[in-house]
Structures are given as structure tokens and as C-alpha cells.
Amino acid sequence: MTPAPLPPDPLATSDLPDLAAAETMLVAALGQIEWVRRYTLELLDATPEELWFEMPDWGKRTEDTAPGQVATSADRGITHVAWQVGHLAVSQYGLLMFRIHGRRDEDLELVPGSFRKAFGRGSDPHSAGVKRHSAEELRERLDRIHRSAVAGLREGFDSGRLLEPVDMPYAVYPIKLGAILFCPLHEQIHGGQIGLIRRGLGLPPIR
Questions:
Q1: Across-strand partners of 39?
Q2: Which terminus of the chain is more solvent-facing, meaning fewer CB atoms within 10 Å of its CB: N or C?
Q3: All structural domains of the chain
Q4: pTM for this predicted structure
């Protein structure tokens, strides 16, 4: 029996929206961004800050190391809540601010270069740069970036910019609207990782 053909790739075939449709999708995206952030905060509120830098032992265990080999932190864990929070802050800045209006002078204080390096894509949760930031600071920066990003898309935003092109990552459309649409999808992925980390640390689910 011949299998049914796969549906066409929406990235390759979707027509770009007109401005009115883009504005409607922006409203929906902002609602999703606020919803998923509330869920992320539920997870964080239910995770004691003293556990934010703890890594569940998902990887090679000490008893599995070869004779004479010392198990490292990389052997005992992959990621932790603190890195997830810092990464969400950097990513939201990138998707909703930098990719929409470019880097502004005030962004240097909001998201310093050292912070982007510590928590950007491909960064190492084991690095010394990550450990320089306390759970309290990470939570505060996450909140500040969120407030600034959402306000910038609600207040005085030129909706015509939604149709300007961007490179990956984006969702559905290769335009600035696509970067905004990708933001809540990306946060939900990392919310799932936070939930899994919590279970690995012996904490109960919140839902």
C-alpha cells in the first residue's frame, strides 16, 4: 500500500500575511506569550531557589566511570533551572526586541554582553559565567526583559515592521511576525525542560 504523501512544508508554501492579518496574529501571539510566561512562573515559584543550580543525574553515574576516572559535573548532569531561566531571558530579548528594532543603548544594561554569552544558544550550563548570576538576579532580569519586550510591542509599535524579513529562528513566516510567533513556542519547550528538571530533583508536578 502506497503511503499517503506528506503535507506541503508551510515554510516553503505559506503566503505571507497582509498587514491586517499580521496585526491580528500579533494580538494572539501576545496572548500566548503572556499565558506561557504565567506557566513558567508557576514552575519557578514551586522550585526552591537553593535548587536552581542543581542538575539531576541524567547522564553517566559515578559508578559507571572507568577505574581511576573522576566523574565531573558534566558526567552528573546536563542542565539546571538557573540556565533555563537565563536562556529564556536572553531568547525573549533576541526574539521580541533585538530582532524587531535592533540593539539600543539601553539594552546594554538590560542584557549585557556577558549575560548573552553565559545564557545564549549553545552556552554551557556548567560555565563559571552562569554561576556568577544568582537565582534572584536571574528572576529579576527575566521579569524586566518580559515587561520591556511586551510593552514595546503594545505601545507605539509600528505594526508595518511585522512584515519585514528575518533569518531563522522564526515560526511559519520568515518575517518579524514569525520571530514573535516563535517566542511562546520556544518558551514552552524550555518550560517542559524545567518541569523535567524539577521531577529529576524529586519535586512534585504542579499540574
A1: none
A2: N
A3: 18-54+77-200 (1.20.120.450)
A4: 0.84
